[in-house]
Amino acid sequence: MAEAAGKVWHGGDLAQAKALFPEAPEPWIDLSTGINPIPYPVPELPLSLWQRLPGGRDEAALLAAARAAYRVPETAGVVAAPGTQILIELLPRLASIGPVAVIGPTYAEHALAWRKAGMNVRETATLAETGDASAVVLVNPNNPDGRMVQRAQLTAIARDLAGRGGLLVVDEAFIDFMPEASLIPELPPATLILRSFGKTYGLAGLRLGFAIGEACLTEALRAALGPWAVAGPALHIGAQALSDTAWLAATSDARTCDAARLDALLGTHGAIVGGTSLFRLLATPNAPALFAHLGRNGIYARRFQNNASWLRLGLPGDEPSWQRLAAALASFLP
After folding, report:
1. Average pLDDT per 10 consecutive residues for the chain, totaling 334 residues
2. Nearest Cα to 309, choosing from 293, 288, 328, 292?
3. Exposure string over 12-44, b if 16+ CB within 10 A, otherwise e
4. Which domains are present in the chain?
């Protein structure tokens, strides 16, 4: 099956997997995303949440839970959105016209959103190469290689950008299991932090995300989103899950163990060059062949347009899936 030219590749599209490998056994094991395979237990929801418009009290409860979970300073603003993707699309409204630097390779939608807004975007490998950019965007820890930029470096560039009317955007989608690394508690000026709910809590279909920053920035995003941006069920589930610190701690330990188990399986097939507790990045010249081999075994991995030697795998969600992955890897002959 030919793939559309110029289209950004994403994980999670099992329809495409089935088209690429129509003879593969089912059920499919989708390892192409960085989403926790063992989700937060969704509570039974009152029917009224589906029948009425989201209420201000429900939104306030969610934002209070997010403030506590993310350790947001009292002076900072928080806005909830139906997923961080819509926030990424709105970010160009916050910055003046000028060059934009995206630290990459990274989640491709960041650069694409600024380009669609008519901005001059350059992708650089380090913060030191951002030069005179009026907006700097990075994912921390990075997707797909897990690269981390230290808080001191981020604070320094944020202050530089603030001095010339710029903006620093830090996407912390995969930082929930390492809260000590978050920039939010020491939020510098001219900085906007994005946090994703669905990845860590395994509920990507809920569509919930947050932006944290100076009140003028979050209020501009809130105005752009309009009323009732987040659905009532998402407000309710999000508030409960973000307040469940015991679940987060236990899940962090479990996924760390799972990531080590995945490293052990992948290590004989190439070099583990990075990742997070929710995914691992394998570098091997055999990546295309391994992708196809896994696909023929009903296991969908994540490949990359900009690096054919990379293959990213998420975590299996149960023991039968782990066993199927182990068997498929063991039977691979380059």
Report:
1. 51 90 96 97 95 96 98 98 98 89 96 95 95 96 97 96 96 97 97 98 97 97 97 98 98 98 97 98 98 98 93 98 98 93
2. 288
3. beeebbbebbeebeeebbbbbbbbbbebbeeee
4. 14-39+246-330 (3.90.1150.10), 48-243 (3.40.640.10)
